[in-house]
Each structure stands twice: as C-alpha cells, then as structure tokens.
Amino acid sequence: MDLNIWSEENVEFMFEGITKKLRMATGGSIKASNVKQEMYEDLKDLYEMVASKDRFSISEIDAITTELGKIRKA
Questions:
Q1: Structural domain that includes position 20
Q2: Matching InterPro entries, A to Z (predicted)?
Q3: Is 17 among the domain residues?
Q4: pLDDT of residue 73
C-alpha cells in the first residue's frame, strides 16, 4: 500500500488507523467519499503524527478530531 497516492482504500486505511489509535467510536461514520482529494496530504500528515505517538492528551485528541472535521467535505 502506497500512502503517497490518493485512493479510497488509503483514506479508509488511515481513518481506521487514527480511530483505532485514539479509540474513537465515531470513526465508522467517516468514509473516503467524504474526503476532499486536495486534503489528502493533510490526512496523511495527521495519520503519520497519530501513528508516531503512544499517548494523547485530551486537548490533543480534541485538536485531532477538529482537524478530521476540516478534512471531511462540507
């Protein structure tokens, strides 16, 4: 899997990874079709940041969920 290239499979993989790491219950409601293609790099950056950390503060989780909201299509 090459996460440098946009695909629905990659988007879903990254969302699943983020939601598992953060133990978010709402992850299933985020679909690849809800992601603007031009926001893919932002999602990839967010995924890499989340994957690199072991623990998150409440404020970090809040900031991450805010960023996920920005990535989704309006």
A1: 8-71
A2: UPF0435
A3: yes
A4: 63
